[in-house]
Write a structure and sequence with these properties.
The protein is 17% helix and 34% strand. It is built from 3 helices and 11 strands; from the N terminus they run βαββββαβββαβββ.
Amino acid sequence: MIEVNKNTLASTLPALGKLICRRSPMTLFKSIKIESADEKLRFATCGASEEIAFELESGSEDVFCCMVGFDEFRDAVRSGRNKTVSLTYEAGTLLVGDRYLITVTDVEWPDHSPKVEATNCLLPDGVVEMFARAAQIVDRNEPRAILRGINLSFCYFICIDHYSLRIYLQNTAPS
């Protein structure tokens, strides 16, 4: 049994839920993966090309890996009346507080790790502000891949928001 602070876990669920697609026919995109190993507890959700994970120290020797429906897991965490939520994995079910959740089977978690070792480089000053401005207009749900995302260059970003092209130069206002 693993005890987790309910507030800590509840505060991670909105970020983990960003990749959940409730209308997807694929169970993988509606599930959360929970892993316990090496005294760490890891929660992850994934989309078609990206993954979000949250890891915390559990102090438990339990070792398991399972996937459950994200909405069911969120409801089980929210329904707890204590300051901590207990997680117990037994025989294909995950006990979250006092709720049993059936695990998702026959689904393989994709590997989103880089295929090639990337080289490190220094980012220019102000890159965080550039990303913050550019991320506001990007539509991750755009079906046309060419119109989804941010194209990077040494000193500018290019973003498309369905109908207009935006170029963000370093230390300048959007054009």
